[in-house]
Write a structure and sequence with these properties.
Elements lengths: L1 H5 L6 E4 L4 H4 L4 E4 L15 E5 L9 E4 L5 E5 L8 E5 L7 E2 L1 H13 L3 E6 L13 H15 L1 H4 L6 E6 L1 H11 L21 E5 L12 H8 L5 H6 L13 E6 L8 H12 L4 E6 L19 H11 L9
Parallel strand pairs: 6-8, 6-9, 9-10, 10-11, 11-12
Antiparallel strand pairs: 1-3, 2-5, 3-4, 4-7, 5-8
Helix pairs in contact: 4-6
């Protein structure tokens, strides 16, 4: 409950210029992703909005849309252990769920020594050029920026991962599999660095754009209502796994009817087939979008501890006592 109390200051429904980080969360500092306008977004007439949808004044459940100035909200660990995680919240690629899939996880990580970077990314259906590649452009740039400035953030440049929820899981898996895809022209020296995350953690992720498994809303937002077969295939990430895909942890529930488990099963099978270290945890109950708060009181509520144990066993956290 302390975490929820921390996040329950005030209410908001704002539109216009992107609000300062302190207006979103007073613990955050802000780092712009791009030195100038983001690729293909210059001059776009969009108004960023943050909308509160919780009926409870003590609990926030905000979402953001209309992003033209993608950025990282940085939560530095008070006792950093050198590991950094870039968070990609979900929202069907039409919004980004700030609180329950972003800020709450960021606070949990920072409290445990992991610096968290909440990615506020552009949404594909809002008029940007290279529609389907816009989120991936921002995710690649985020990994390059955090790695390129690892010393400034107190990080080990070889322990930088991504954690994504739902459509944000698709984005995290996209940068894990398509980290070397040429989706934008280099803008500065940071873009000479690798965009490959060192690990990925995917919670109830959208993976496939194939009609037999896809989450329809995410597919339509990313690719449009009549995508080509080539676009479907290239954005179905079970097809994009290679031996270079980083180690991956998947966490989901069997009763998720929004993004069916087949998505994660296909991805896990591809990881296994290519010899990529992977773990798959399917809990019986929890449905979709549980984040941290929605999982409380259920076995899946231990997912942060499960992820922590996996990170430790995989060598992405320092051994206890070091």
């Amino acid at each position: 409950m302390a975490l929820l109390a921390l996040l329950s200051f005030g209410r908001s429904r704002t539109a216009g210029a992107a609000p300062p980080a302190a207006a979103v969360d007073p613990a955050a500092t802000e780092v712009p992703l791009w030195p100038e306008a983001a690729p293909g977004s210059g001059g776009l007439a969009l108004q960023e909005s943050i909308t509160e949808r919780s009926p409870d004044p003590q609990v926030r459940d905000r979402f953001v849309a209309g992003v033209t100035r993608p950025r990282l909200l940085v939560f530095r660990a008070s006792k950093p252990n050198g590991t950094g995680v870039i968070l990609a919240p979900g929202g069907s690629y039409v919004r980004e769920v700030l609180d329950k899939e972003g800020l709450e996880t960021a606070h949990w990580l920072a409290a445990h020594g992991v610096s968290a970077f909440l990615l506020v990314y552009r949404l594909p259906g809002e008029g940007h050029a290279q529609r389907a590649d816009v989120p991936l452009q921002d995710a690649q740039r985020a990994v390059r920026l955090v790695r390129g400035r690892a010393r400034d953030f107190g990080l080990d440049a070889h322990r930088i991962g991504v954690l994504g929820f739902s459509a944000g899981g698709h984005l995290a898996a996209s940068v894990a599999t398509r980290f070397d895809a040429k989706v934008y022209a280099a803008v500065d020296a940071l873009d000479a660095g690798s965009a490959r995350p060192d690990f990925s953690i995917l919670l109830y992720p959208v993976i496939s754009m194939d009609a037999t498994a896809a989450h329809g809303g995410s597919r339509d937002a990313l690719l449009g209502e009549a995508p080509s077969a080539a676009a479907v295939a290239s954005n179905s990430l079970e097809n994009a796994v290679t031996a270079a895909t980083p180690p991956t942890l998947l966490i989901l529930t069997d009763d998720d009817t929004a993004v069916i488990p087949e998505n994660s099963l296909r991805y896990y099978s591809a990881l296994h087939r290519h010899g990529v270290p992977a773990e798959l945890h399917i809990f019986a109950r929890g449905k979709h979008g549980f984040g941290i708060r929605g999982a409380q009181g259920l076995p899946v509520g231990n997912w942060p501890e499960t992820a922590w144990a996996w990170l430790l066993a995989s060598g992405f956290l320092p051994a206890p006592g070091h």
